[in-house]
Amino acid sequence: MTRKALIEQIHLKKSYLCVGLDTDITKIPKHLLSLPDPVFEFNKQVIDATRDYCVSYKINTAFYESQGIKGWEAMEKTVNYIPPTHFTIADAKRGDIGNTSSQYAKAFFEVLNFDAITVAPYMGEDSVRPFLEYQNKWTIVLGLTSNPGARDFELQQTGTERVYEKVLRTVSGWGSPENLMFVIGATQADEFTNIRNILPHHFFLVPGVGSQGGSLKDISDKAMNNDCGILINVSRAIIFAGKKEDFATEAKAIAAQYQREMSAYIK
Amino acid sequence: MTRKALIEQIHLKKSYLCVGLDTDITKIPKHLLSLPDPVFEFNKQVIDATRDYCVSYKINTAFYESQGIKGWEAMEKTVNYIPPTHFTIADAKRGDIGNTSSQYAKAFFEVLNFDAITVAPYMGEDSVRPFLEYQNKWTIVLGLTSNPGARDFELQQTGTERVYEKVLRTVSGWGSPENLMFVIGATQADEFTNIRNILPHHFFLVPGVGSQGGSLKDISDKAMNNDCGILINVSRAIIFAGKKEDFATEAKAIAAQYQREMSAYIK
After folding, report:
1. Would the CB atoms of B146 and A103 count as touching at under 8 Å?
2. Which residue of A137, A149, B135, B244 is most buried, as measured by CB atoms within 10 A?
3. Smallest CA–CA separation between A11 and chain B, in Å?
4. A111/B66 Cβ within 8 A
5. How far is B73 from chain A (nearest CA, A)?
6. pLDDT of residue A177
7. Best A65, A113, A163, A206 residue to mutate vs chain B (most B CBs within 10 Å)
8. CB contact burial A93-118 (16+ within 10 A = b; e otherwise)
9. Looking at residues A79-90, what average pLDDT do you find?
10. Cα separation of B147 and B162, whole Å?
11. Exposure of B194 by Cβ count < 10 A (0-12 exposed, 13-18 middle, 19+ buried)?
12. Of B63, B54, B81, nearest to B27 (Cα)?
């Protein structure tokens, strides 16, 4: 999906919501467990219920890998089920030496046909470049993450800036706002004005609203640009809003609530 | 596998060789491609041929994921085929917020029953801890990698030390030499004396000998400790030594050559 197409979807739906399919099989409603593929059935119903309120789905690969081959099958079926109008993200946090990163790019951009993948920056340029070589695909590099561990390395000083700032500045030179985004956690609200100054044009994928406690209004105020420029991910607070047969209706209600709030913030 | 058992295997075989199963389906001998599972058949023959000369096998998950569900099946069969005398490493370079890292730990320690997994440190403590919670399992954290991109962030100064040194010092406080190793690339030979001073007791997993050009003698001189303390990984130079029907014989010859050289260096 191109940047232009993504922005069109944002304006069409008046939403910059990304629904995170962190489908933990131990947390889905019990009545699904007797079906042949409970994880896919859960995702299918969540997607059907929320698609009008979001512009993107993010699949957290860990929750699928922990189910082995069956999980990989559920991931493949899920990404194929997501409508082509929605921006699909493999939240995989991959990254390795060049010839290995090429294999990950193949896995997520060719075999699974995601629009985007999240990538860890630690190993530097040749670990990120293979993802950027794909046309109309996106690389979403970890900048400043939402978890407490962000303080261990990301927020440490290096020269005149912090490690994550160096990552933003350096990595932004390897791609463009047309094929590169950054993960910036919503729990880091104090940093958003600074981050938007460093990178005025890039989209940010923002997890940490919802269960992790980040504020949608605060982030939207500080981080939006003229093209919207943010995708807010909400996972557990939407997909596990209900725990029984009506889980999809509950998910829809919460997604709609986020969309309504977002529609007021979009310029 | 415990540290004691690993050290016993090293002394028994007079080897600290890890064979890297970076099984690229486009590079395996053509006669295997008509079999139901060419990747597993290739790995099986390589394992049978090299097991007497190495103490460990490292599966690079990218080369399996790029084959989709079939690749995940080949990985599962391969890890189950490796003898229990050998230390098995999932070279997966995972790492995410706590509840997600727990799912990766489950995938590689429970579903796939690897002894160890490689983990990226960028996201800090809560992204690494879930792996360390497993008994008799190992977390191998990226320290200083073998690729050119190591200079982008790992070798940058932060306060009085480089980023990778900060990673080594900080992460070593989260586990012990009984459940924690570090990846240190063989192409970084100049740094090994310094690194061994920082971490006298830990094992290092050392890729980059072979196709990437690191020197086995140089690394062994600088990095070994009284318990050996290093696992040298060689992937392509062993598994793709031959390109025809006799690939396993060729792999065996190269593995045996590394083992002979190592037997002279072991204290």
Report:
1. no
2. A149
3. 31
4. yes
5. 7
6. 98
7. A65
8. bbbbbbbbbbbbbbbbbebbebbbbb
9. 98
10. 17
11. middle
12. B63
Instruction: Give the list of residues 6+ apart from residue B135 with CB closer than 8 angstroms, or none.
Output: none
Chain A residues lying within 8 Å of B104, measured CB to CB: 62, 65-66
Is the ipTM, as predicted for this complex, more than 0.90? yes
At B188 the pLDDT is 86
Confirm or reject contact between A113 and chain B (CB < 8 A): no
Taking the C-alpha atoms of residue B11 and residue A115, their distance in angstroms, rounded to an integer, is 49
Compute the average pLDDT of residues A191-216: 91
Whole-angstrom distance, CA of residue A128 vs CA of residue A114: 17
Please tell me the distance from the alpha carbon of residue B109 to that of residue A166, in angstroms, as a whole number.
34
Q: Band the pLDDT of A212: cuts 50, 70, 90.
A: confident
pLDDT tops 80 at residue B228: yes
Average pLDDT, stretch B117-146? 97
Residues of B within 8 A of A100 (CB-CB) are: 22, 60, 62-63
pTM: 0.98
Q: Which A positions 60-79 lie with beta carbon below 8 A of chain B?
A: 60, 62-63, 65-69, 71-73, 76
pLDDT digits (tens, 9 = 90+) for B52-91: 999 999 999 999 999 999 999 999 999 999 999 999 999 9
Domains of chain B (ranges; CATH) run 3-265 (3.20.20.70)
Instruction: Locate B55 and state its tokens.
Output: 């103490």
Dump pLDDT digits (tens) for B108-120.
999 999 999 999 9
CB contact under 8 A, B103 and A158: no
Mean pLDDT over the full length of chain A: 96
Q: Is B159 part of the contact surface with chain A (CB cutoff 8 Å)? A: yes
Cβ-Cβ contacts under 8 Å, B159 against chain A = 156-157
Interchain CB distance below 8 Å, A123 and B163:
no
Alpha-carbon distances of B209 from A75, B125, B241, B242, rounded to whole Å: 36, 30, 14, 18
Cβ neighbourhood burial of B241 (10 Å; 0-12, 13-18, 19+): buried
Asked if pLDDT for residue A245 goes beyond 80, the answer is: yes
Distance from CA of B2 to the nearest CA of A (A): 24
Q: Of B28, B114, B118, B23, which Cα lies nearest the Cα of B71?
A: B23
Mean pLDDT along residues A145-170: 96
Is A222 considered catalytic here?
Answer: no
Closest residue, chain B, to A77 (C-alpha): B69
Q: How confident is the model at residue B172 (pLDDT cuts 50, 70, 90)?
A: very high
